[in-house]
Amino acid sequence: MDYRDKLVLAPMVRVGTLPLRLLAAEYGADITYGEEIIDHKLLKCERRINDILGCTDIVEKGTESVVFRTCPEERNRVVFQMGTSDAVRALKAAQLVCKDVAAVDINMGCPMSFSISGGMGAALLNKPELIHDILTTLKRNLNTPVTCKIRLLKSSRDTVELARRIEKTGVSALAVHGRRVADRPRDPAKWIEIADVVAALSIPVIANGDVFEFEDFDRVKVATGASSVMVARGALWNASIFSPNGKVPWEDVKRKYLRKSIFWDNDIKSTKQTLKEMIMHYSCLEFPEGKAVIKSETVGDLAQLYGEEHYYKDVKLKQQLSDGSR
């Protein structure tokens, strides 16, 4: 995978599932990261081909719970992000998904307590030897490109030193979130510190932080010198941020997202969470639409709420016919 001059959808927990990734790509995203999935969970899963939907599912054994769903359409751009704190476990988990994705990424930036308490995410930032062990193990044993995503350390010098050590493992690219672990989303991203990393490395660096309009992609590139730029919240609020023609109306984006969720039988919790995030940015969950989304128990309920009943029925009928003809 080429990581230069790319617009990138960031990994986002609970919302970065197949519908949002495909929606972002439709609007212009070149690379789309899936939500972080923990290696322990992957080791309880098996890979299944879903002939009804035309996709590949990573499913928890003994259940029908889909942990990760992907399709051929995104094969050359989807990045599977994993949470891990052990090289052997990471490799075993990566081997389950590596044939269906464009790259495998190790999360080294998540500040959430569940991640840090397990020695994953941002907890790895202070363990350079473990980082080296995980990344070199994956690089040595996978034919799939390996990348990782970090946050800024206490000083720019520390960040650059870690980035150089990561580069020596042979990873294909490094994503840098321009905030420290203690920073909040409202704190401005420190683009100048990402620029220090870019200047020190020869591999592509993906800059992440404070992209809310299409024009921000260029602003970040100019400010940091990064090869590519990654966006999280801006894309969650309106995935058409990737379009050089300007954002499309919020209502249209929501309906398009819902249609993709219906078509790909997306998990209801993920679908509701994504819609709630969209609503909270432009409106309020206490208004009728927000309350109705919260009350919805099925994707069918959401289809009715957004006037997509006919589409929902057509898709379900086709899926039933496809299932019956097997």
Automatic annotation (TrEMBL):
<dbReference type="GO" id="GO:0016491">
    <property type="term" value="F:oxidoreductase activity"/>
</dbReference>
<keyword id="KW-0288">FMN</keyword>
<keyword id="KW-0560">Oxidoreductase</keyword>
<dbReference type="InterPro" id="IPR013785">
    <property type="entry name" value="Aldolase_TIM"/>
</dbReference>
<protein>
    <recommendedName>
        <fullName>DUS-like FMN-binding domain-containing protein</fullName>
    </recommendedName>
</protein>
<feature type="domain" description="DUS-like FMN-binding">
    <location>
        <begin position="9"/>
        <end position="279"/>
    </location>
</feature>
<dbReference type="InterPro" id="IPR052582">
    <property type="entry name" value="tRNA-DUS-like"/>
</dbReference>
<keyword id="KW-0285">Flavoprotein</keyword>
<dbReference type="GO" id="GO:0002943">
    <property type="term" value="P:tRNA dihydrouridine synthesis"/>
</dbReference>
<dbReference type="Pfam" id="PF01207">
    <property type="entry name" value="Dus"/>
</dbReference>
<dbReference type="InterPro" id="IPR018517">
    <property type="entry name" value="tRNA_hU_synthase_CS"/>
</dbReference>
<dbReference type="InterPro" id="IPR035587">
    <property type="entry name" value="DUS-like_FMN-bd"/>
</dbReference>
<keyword id="KW-0819">tRNA processing</keyword>
